[in-house]
Amino acid sequence: MTGKSGNTTSYSVEQLDAMRERGEDKTDLGMSHAEAMRRRHADAEAPRPYAGWEETIAVGLPEPKEQITLRLDRDVLRWFRTKGKGYQTLINAVLRGYYEHENPHKNP
Q1: Pairing status of strand 8-10 against strand 3-5
Q2: How far out from the chain centre does Cα 44 lie?
Q3: Among 105, 100, 102, 77, which residue's Cα sits nearest to residue 90?
Q4: Out of 38-47, 81-90, 92-101, least confident range
Q5: Listed residue (80, 84, 106) closest to 94, CA to CA
Q6: Would you list the domain boundaries of the chain?
Q7: Among 10-14, 18-22, 26-30, 77-81, where is mean pLDDT lowest?
């Protein structure tokens, strides 16, 4: 599906793959992504990551979730269910946001 909003056009993954196969992976300036990246790296004024940035990345798997029984007010549960598939994940995200607000220096 192609959508256009203002100056932005969106494409599906399939459409982008087909465009690349046809050699249409060009920027608005008519250059390939590889050429755009080459020019960016050659530009002395382009922003650069700071030394050691890769040491700041924390990679890990989240802890497994625990299944519980939780009693919620019917209207609250009904509202979350109106959000569709993934409403339980949304409930968890809301609770996590509150937890992080109350415990800003704790890690999960």
Answers
A1: antiparallel
A2: 29
A3: 77
A4: 38-47
A5: 80
A6: 3-42, 62-102
A7: 26-30
pLDDT at position 18: 82
Determine which helix (DSSP H) or strand (DSSP E) holds 92, and give its type and residue range. helix 87-102
* Weakest-pLDDT range from 6-10, 19-23, 80-84, 100-104: 6-10
Tokens found for residue 108:
């999960």
Q: In angstroms, rounded to a whole number, what is the distance separating the alpha carbons of residues 67 and 48?
A: 44
> Which runs of E-coded beta strand occur in the chain?
3-5, 8-10
Would you give the distance in Å from CA 48 to the centre of its chain? 22
d(CA 88, CA 95): 11
Q: Which class for 90: exposed (0-12), middle (13-18), buried (19 or more C-beta within 10 A)?
A: middle
pLDDT for 1 equals: 46
